[in-house]
Protein backbone atom coordinates (compact mmCIF):
# COMPACT_ATOMS: atom_id res chain seq x y z
CA UNK A 1 0.00 0.00 0.00
CA UNK A 2 1.29 3.46 -0.86
CA UNK A 3 2.38 5.52 2.14
CA UNK A 4 0.35 8.58 3.04
CA UNK A 5 2.60 11.54 2.24
CA UNK A 6 0.09 14.31 2.82
CA UNK A 7 0.70 17.26 5.10
CA UNK A 8 -1.94 18.38 7.58
CA UNK A 9 -5.09 19.72 5.94
CA UNK A 10 -5.29 22.76 8.18
CA UNK A 11 -3.46 24.54 10.97
CA UNK A 12 -5.42 22.86 13.77
CA UNK A 13 -4.91 19.36 12.40
CA UNK A 14 -1.20 20.15 12.14
CA UNK A 15 -1.13 21.09 15.82
CA UNK A 16 -2.95 17.88 16.73
CA UNK A 17 -0.53 15.75 14.70
CA UNK A 18 2.45 17.39 16.39
CA UNK A 19 0.87 16.76 19.79
CA UNK A 20 0.06 13.12 18.95
CA UNK A 21 3.69 12.56 17.94
CA UNK A 22 5.06 14.20 21.08
CA UNK A 23 6.51 17.06 19.04
CA UNK A 24 4.48 19.91 20.55
CA UNK A 25 5.26 21.80 23.74
CA UNK A 26 2.32 23.86 25.02
CA UNK A 27 3.28 26.83 27.17
CA UNK A 28 0.49 28.05 29.47
CA UNK A 29 2.66 30.32 31.63
CA UNK A 30 2.36 34.00 30.73
CA UNK A 31 5.06 35.04 28.26
CA UNK A 32 5.84 38.60 27.23
CA UNK A 33 5.74 39.07 23.45
CA UNK A 34 8.34 41.83 23.80
CA UNK A 35 11.65 40.00 23.20
CA UNK A 36 10.99 37.24 25.80
CA UNK A 37 9.04 35.07 23.35
CA UNK A 38 11.67 35.16 20.64
CA UNK A 39 14.41 34.43 23.20
CA UNK A 40 12.56 31.24 24.15
CA UNK A 41 12.14 30.27 20.49
CA UNK A 42 15.83 30.90 19.79
CA UNK A 43 16.87 28.68 22.70
CA UNK A 44 14.49 25.92 21.61
CA UNK A 45 15.98 26.09 18.11
CA UNK A 46 19.50 25.76 19.49
CA UNK A 47 18.48 22.70 21.52
CA UNK A 48 16.58 21.19 18.54
CA UNK A 49 13.57 20.85 20.80
CA UNK A 50 9.86 20.48 20.05
CA UNK A 51 7.57 22.97 18.33
CA UNK A 52 6.04 25.61 20.60
CA UNK A 53 2.44 26.67 21.20
CA UNK A 54 2.07 29.82 23.31
CA UNK A 55 -1.39 30.03 24.91
CA UNK A 56 -0.87 32.97 27.25
CA UNK A 57 0.86 35.99 25.73
CA UNK A 58 0.95 39.03 27.99
CA UNK A 59 -1.60 41.61 26.88
CA UNK A 60 -2.89 39.48 23.97
CA UNK A 61 -6.39 38.09 24.33
CA UNK A 62 -7.40 37.68 20.69
CA UNK A 63 -5.27 34.81 19.41
CA UNK A 64 -2.71 32.15 20.26
CA UNK A 65 0.69 32.62 18.66
CA UNK A 66 2.25 29.55 17.11
CA UNK A 67 5.79 28.84 15.99
CA UNK A 68 6.78 25.42 14.70
CA UNK A 69 9.31 23.44 12.76
CA UNK A 70 7.14 22.53 9.76
CA UNK A 71 5.43 19.37 8.44
CA UNK A 72 6.88 16.65 6.25
CA UNK A 73 7.22 17.27 2.50
CA UNK A 74 8.52 13.73 1.73
CA UNK A 75 7.96 12.59 -1.83
CA UNK A 76 5.08 14.86 -2.78
CA UNK A 77 7.19 16.48 -5.50
CA UNK A 78 6.73 13.31 -7.56
CA UNK A 79 2.94 13.69 -7.54
CA UNK A 80 0.83 15.60 -10.04
CA UNK A 81 -0.53 19.01 -8.95
CA UNK A 82 -4.12 18.92 -7.68
CA UNK A 83 -6.61 21.43 -9.07
CA UNK A 84 -8.15 23.66 -6.41
CA UNK A 85 -11.87 23.49 -5.72
CA UNK A 86 -13.42 26.95 -5.46
CA UNK A 87 -16.18 27.68 -2.95
CA UNK A 88 -18.36 30.72 -2.28
CA UNK A 89 -17.58 30.78 1.44
CA UNK A 90 -15.76 28.85 4.15
CA UNK A 91 -14.61 28.76 7.76
CA UNK A 92 -12.15 31.62 7.23
CA UNK A 93 -15.15 33.90 6.66
CA UNK A 94 -16.94 33.17 9.94
CA UNK A 95 -15.94 36.66 11.09
CA UNK A 96 -15.28 39.68 8.86
CA UNK A 97 -13.78 42.98 10.04
CA UNK A 98 -13.83 45.93 7.67
CA UNK A 99 -12.47 49.45 7.41
CA UNK A 100 -12.24 51.51 10.58
CA UNK A 101 -13.10 48.50 12.75
CA UNK A 102 -9.68 46.95 11.97
CA UNK A 103 -7.16 47.17 14.84
CA UNK A 104 -3.83 45.59 13.89
CA UNK A 105 -2.50 46.23 17.41
CA UNK A 106 -4.92 43.59 18.73
CA UNK A 107 -2.89 40.85 17.02
CA UNK A 108 -0.35 39.00 19.22
CA UNK A 109 2.65 39.99 17.11
CA UNK A 110 5.89 39.59 19.09
CA UNK A 111 8.55 42.24 19.49
CA UNK A 112 11.42 40.22 18.04
CA UNK A 113 14.46 42.34 18.85
CA UNK A 114 15.21 45.26 21.16
CA UNK A 115 16.13 47.38 18.12
CA UNK A 116 12.90 46.66 16.22
CA UNK A 117 10.99 49.74 15.07
CA UNK A 118 7.72 48.04 15.98
CA UNK A 119 5.80 44.77 16.02
CA UNK A 120 5.61 43.43 12.48
CA UNK A 121 4.38 40.11 11.04
CA UNK A 122 7.24 38.08 9.60
CA UNK A 123 5.45 35.32 7.66
CA UNK A 124 3.87 35.84 4.26
CA UNK A 125 2.08 33.37 2.04
CA UNK A 126 1.48 34.10 -1.65
CA UNK A 127 -2.01 34.18 -3.09
CA UNK A 128 -2.86 34.05 -6.77
CA UNK A 129 -1.81 32.09 -9.86
CA UNK A 130 1.70 31.44 -11.12
CA UNK A 131 3.17 33.84 -13.68
CA UNK A 132 6.61 33.76 -15.37
CA UNK A 133 9.51 34.14 -12.90
CA UNK A 134 7.09 33.96 -9.94
CA UNK A 135 8.38 37.38 -8.97
CA UNK A 136 6.28 39.74 -6.87
CA UNK A 137 8.14 42.66 -8.47
CA UNK A 138 7.07 41.51 -11.93
CA UNK A 139 3.45 41.35 -10.78
CA UNK A 140 3.70 44.79 -9.19
CA UNK A 141 5.09 46.29 -12.41
CA UNK A 142 2.10 44.92 -14.34
CA UNK A 143 -0.25 46.76 -11.99
CA UNK A 144 1.83 49.94 -12.29
CA UNK A 145 1.42 49.75 -16.06
CA UNK A 146 -2.35 49.66 -15.51
CA UNK A 147 -2.01 52.63 -13.09
CA UNK A 148 -3.84 50.63 -10.42
CA UNK A 149 -2.88 49.65 -6.89
CA UNK A 150 -1.99 45.97 -6.61
CA UNK A 151 -4.44 43.75 -4.69
CA UNK A 152 -2.90 41.39 -2.17
CA UNK A 153 -3.83 38.82 0.45
CA UNK A 154 -1.79 37.79 3.49
CA UNK A 155 -2.75 34.42 5.00
CA UNK A 156 -1.97 33.10 8.49
CA UNK A 157 -2.37 29.48 9.56
CA UNK A 158 -2.62 28.14 6.02
CA UNK A 159 -2.74 24.36 5.42
CA UNK A 160 0.05 23.99 6.06
CA UNK A 161 2.06 27.18 6.55
CA UNK A 162 5.38 25.36 6.47
CA UNK A 163 4.39 23.45 3.33
CA UNK A 164 3.46 26.69 1.57
CA UNK A 165 6.73 28.38 2.51
CA UNK A 166 8.80 25.38 1.44
CA UNK A 167 6.99 25.01 -1.89
CA UNK A 168 7.73 28.68 -2.68
CA UNK A 169 11.44 27.90 -2.54
CA UNK A 170 11.48 24.37 -3.92
CA UNK A 171 12.86 23.58 -7.40
CA UNK A 172 9.52 22.27 -8.62
CA UNK A 173 9.01 22.00 -12.40
CA UNK A 174 8.78 25.26 -14.31
CA UNK A 175 5.25 26.61 -14.87
CA UNK A 176 3.91 24.49 -12.00
CA UNK A 177 1.02 26.19 -10.20
CA UNK A 178 2.25 26.52 -6.61
CA UNK A 179 -1.21 26.51 -4.92
CA UNK A 180 -2.03 23.29 -6.79
CA UNK A 181 1.25 21.76 -5.64
CA UNK A 182 0.42 22.71 -2.04
CA UNK A 183 -3.00 21.10 -2.55
CA UNK A 184 -1.22 17.86 -3.44
CA UNK A 185 0.59 18.02 -0.11
CA UNK A 186 -2.55 18.65 1.92
CA UNK A 187 -5.13 16.60 -0.02
CA UNK A 188 -7.46 19.53 0.61
CA UNK A 189 -7.63 21.65 -2.56
CA UNK A 190 -10.32 24.05 -1.37
CA UNK A 191 -10.09 27.81 -1.91
CA UNK A 192 -12.46 30.72 -1.36
CA UNK A 193 -12.54 34.14 -3.04
CA UNK A 194 -11.40 37.23 -1.18
CA UNK A 195 -13.98 39.84 -0.15
CA UNK A 196 -12.31 42.80 -1.90
CA UNK A 197 -10.43 41.37 -4.88
CA UNK A 198 -10.22 38.38 -7.24
CA UNK A 199 -7.54 36.49 -5.31
CA UNK A 200 -8.32 33.05 -3.92
CA UNK A 201 -7.16 31.94 -0.47
CA UNK A 202 -7.41 28.68 1.53
CA UNK A 203 -10.89 28.31 2.98
CA UNK A 204 -9.48 26.84 6.19
CA UNK A 205 -6.80 29.47 6.79
CA UNK A 206 -6.96 30.88 10.31
CA UNK A 207 -6.77 34.56 9.31
CA UNK A 208 -6.63 36.48 6.02
CA UNK A 209 -5.69 40.13 5.52
CA UNK A 210 -6.95 41.71 2.30
CA UNK A 211 -5.84 45.01 0.89
CA UNK A 212 -3.73 46.83 -1.67
CA UNK A 213 -0.11 47.77 -2.27
CA UNK A 214 0.00 51.41 -3.30
CA UNK A 215 1.77 52.20 -6.56
CA UNK A 216 2.35 55.79 -5.38
CA UNK A 217 2.45 56.06 -1.57
CA UNK A 218 5.61 55.14 0.31
CA UNK A 219 6.85 55.35 3.90
CA UNK A 220 10.25 54.96 5.62
CA UNK A 221 11.23 51.37 6.30
CA UNK A 222 10.94 50.41 9.97
CA UNK A 223 14.07 49.83 12.02
CA UNK A 224 14.83 46.12 12.30
CA UNK A 225 17.81 43.79 12.71
CA UNK A 226 18.67 41.46 9.84
CA UNK A 227 19.87 37.86 9.81
CA UNK A 228 23.41 38.93 10.70
CA UNK A 229 22.13 40.57 13.93
CA UNK A 230 23.06 43.99 12.57
CA UNK A 231 20.47 46.76 12.86
CA UNK A 232 19.16 48.48 9.73
CA UNK A 233 18.58 51.75 11.61
CA UNK A 234 21.14 53.65 9.53
CA UNK A 235 20.00 52.33 6.15
CA UNK A 236 16.28 53.05 6.04
CA UNK A 237 14.64 53.24 2.63
CA UNK A 238 11.25 54.21 1.28
CA UNK A 239 8.93 51.24 0.69
CA UNK A 240 5.46 50.85 -0.76
CA UNK A 241 2.58 51.10 1.69
CA UNK A 242 0.45 48.03 2.36
CA UNK A 243 -3.14 48.89 3.24
CA UNK A 244 -5.39 46.41 5.05
CA UNK A 245 -9.05 46.83 4.07
CA UNK A 246 -10.58 43.60 5.39
CA UNK A 247 -9.68 40.89 7.90
CA UNK A 248 -11.50 37.54 7.79
CA UNK A 249 -11.13 34.68 10.27
TrEMBL record:
Source domain of life: Eukaryota
Residues in 3-octaprenyl-4-hydroxybenzoate carboxy-lyase-like N-terminal domain copies: 15-62
GO molecular function, one term: carboxy-lyase activity
Domain 3-octaprenyl-4-hydroxybenzoate carboxy-lyase-like Rift-related: 130-249
Record-level GO BP terms: cinnamic acid catabolic process; ferulate metabolic process
Gene Ontology CC annotation, any one: cytoplasm
InterPro entries assigned: UbiD, UbiD-like_N, UbiD_Rift_dom
PANTHER family: 3-OCTAPRENYL-4-HYDROXYBENZOATE CARBOXY-LYASE-RELATED, FERULIC ACID DECARBOXYLASE 1
Name under which the protein is recorded: Uncharacterized protein
Naturally occurring in which organism (per UniProt): Aspergillus tanneri
Amino acid sequence: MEDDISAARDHRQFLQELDDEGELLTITKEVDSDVELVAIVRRVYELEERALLFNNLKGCEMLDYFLSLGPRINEAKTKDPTSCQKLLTGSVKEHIIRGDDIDLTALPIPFLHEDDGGKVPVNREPAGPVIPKQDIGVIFDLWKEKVEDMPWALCFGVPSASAARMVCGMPIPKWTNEPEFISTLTNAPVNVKCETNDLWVPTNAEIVFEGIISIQETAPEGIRPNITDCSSSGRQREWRIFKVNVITY
